[in-house]
Amino acid sequence: MRTLLLAALLFLAPNCSRRSGAQEIPSQASPPPSAHAPVASVAGVTKAASETDGAKLHERYCALCHGKEAKGYAADNAPSLVSQRFLESATDAFIATAIRNGRPNTAMAAYGSSRGGPLDERQITALVRFYRSKGPAPLALPAPGPGDAAKGGKLYTQYCITCHAPPGQRGTAPQLHNPEFLASATPAFIRHAIVHGRPPTPMPPFGERLKAEEIDSIVAYVRALATLPGAAPADAKVPDNLALVINPKGGKPSFKLRDERYVSAEQVKKALDAKQRMVIVDARSPADWLLFHIPGSVPIPYYDTEKLEKLPNDGTWVVAYCACPHHASGEVVDALRKRNYRHTAVLDEGILFWKDKGYPLAGSAATPAPSAAPAPSVKHP
Ligand code: HEC
Ligand code: HEC
Questions:
Q1: Distance between CA atoms of 185 and 316, rounded to whole angstroms?
Q2: Structurally, how many domains does the chain consist of?
Q3: In angstroms, what is the span from residue 360 Cα to ligand 1's centroid?
Q4: Which atom of ligand 2 is closest in space to residue 77's alpha carbon?
Q5: Does 88 lie in the same domain as 213?
Q6: pLDDT value at position 345?
Q7: Measured between alpha carbons, how far is 58 from 68 in angstroms, rounded to an integer?
């Protein structure tokens, strides 16, 4: 009874899809349905069967960046979710919060349905169980001493900045100034990572290199970092009547692609300014679209590519972007090309570059709060 009810609910949900796993290749034989065909159909039923299977959920939504085995670094320097040092310091609540709320302004989107993402709480719990099954339970961690944040700042510049970047900027390692990170990472969690590192990842242990007071000071500094604009308001939803085509009456852009695949942000910005006709697909979790997106873009995430069949296949340019900057958008472009869309491209530098350039954005966090740190100058690899 409960399963049936759930299946019915999923059937109605806007993010519902016909795919039950990432490994399924969408059928190419059938002609694309008409522009406004419902995308739900029998979907809910297949999804209900696998919805609490953490391994399947991981494969569909997370493997793209965190890797098939969840060891990280498949794309975007996504961290390992299964290293011993991570699992012994991260509580289930910490992991669940990261999945639900994401890390705004990074490639890690919010996936919780409370933030407009695809996953309900049962699915988030299933994912947490899946990662937990690959390593130890959380330990009771010793809390650091008070420390001196000013001293910690100097040590941070000396030892950490090469990977974690200055506050407000993006480096190759997770953002320690991220508001969602700071909202859930305790001083003890931060200290544990610094003392022991995260072997076998690039995060080195500092327990032998730095004195205990120095580490306490760095923790005090990290905890005190000013925060950037936060998340989309809870329960925000993508409107269901979004127009698919931008400037339907406009002329055709003449994009020049790099490697027959990538279009520069500058060309897309120019085409928008010139009111030219195109479709822009946001390939991230819809929760991140709610936060900020290119005006006129439609959210069709990398894990829901069947929804691309709604797009006109009449030669209109379709540009896909993500934060990565190429992975999620690349999946969308591959799926379009499989369906014989002729003019498709990946936005080369991605949305974070677009944002850093000050190009137009829409969404709840489109305009940075006055307290925001200066615009990043480090380019994402
Ligand atoms: C050589 C690059 C490098 C240096 C130097 C480095 N880190 Fe890291 N750090 C990383 C990476 C990569 C991760 C993510 C590891 C993983 O996959 O779990 C990380 C993770 C962390 C985490 C955990 C963050 C999270 O979201 O779980 C903390 C805290 C941290 N580092 C603090 C520091 C501090 C403080 C310093 C300086 C004393 C430092 N790191 C120096 C690369 C580095
Ligand atoms: C587009 C790439 C991408 C996808 C897809 C993605 N992540 Fe992440 N994830 C990241 C990055 C990058 C970070 C580090 C963010 C930062 O800089 O702070 C991260 C961080 C995390 C963290 C925090 C780890 C820590 O040490 O603090 C968790 C937990 C996590 N992701 C789980 C997931 C789960 C579960 C999914 C699937 C539902 C997922 N991610 C999908 C890129 C991704």
A1: 46
A2: 3
A3: 32
A4: 12
A5: yes
A6: 98
A7: 8
Which residue carries 């509580």 as its tokens? 91
Closest Cα to atom 2, ligand 2: which residue?
65
Please indicate, yes or no, if residue 185 is contained in any of the structural domains.
yes
Distance 79 CA to ligand 2 centre (A): 7
Q: For 237-253, what is each residue's pLDDT tens digit? A: 888 889 999 999 999 99
* Ligand 1 touching residue 159 (CB < 6 A): yes
Q: How many other CB atoms are there within 10 angstroms of residue 304's CB atom? A: 22
Residues 44 and 135 grouped into a single domain: no
Angle (nearest 5°) at CA 20 between 19 and 25: 50
pLDDT the model gives residue 283: 97
Domain boundary among 182, 212, 231: 231
Q: Verify that 271 and 184 share a domain, yes or no.
A: no
Residue 320: beta bridge partners?
Answer: 281, 346
Q: Within this chain, do residues 286 and 140 fall inside the same structural domain, yes or no?
A: no
| Judgement on whether residues 149 and 178 belong to the same structural domain of the protein | yes
333 and 299 part of one domain: yes
53, two tokens: 């299977």
Distance, CA 71 to ligand 2 centroid (Å)? 11
CATH number for the domain including 287? 3.40.250.10
Task: Answer whether residue 199 shows pLDDT above 50.
Answer: yes
Residue-range definition of the domain harbouring residue 204: 71-231
SS3 263: strand
275-321 tens-digit pLDDT: 999 999 999 999 899 989 999 999 999 999 999 999 999 999 999 99
What's the gap in Å between 61 CA and the centre of ligand 2? 10
By the 8 A CB rule, do 310 and 336 touch?
no
Cα–Cα dist 168/67, whole Å: 27
Looking from the CA of residue 328, the nearest atom of ligand 2 is 1
181 CA → ligand 2 middle, Å: 11
Q: What is the pLDDT of residues 346-373, one digit of tens each?
A: 999 999 999 999 999 998 887 643 333 4
In a domain, 350, yes or no: yes
CB of 189 shorter than 6 A to ligand 1: no
Q: Are residues 91 and 207 in the same domain?
A: yes
Confidence of residue 233 (pLDDT cuts 50, 70, 90): low
Give the pLDDT score at 127. 98
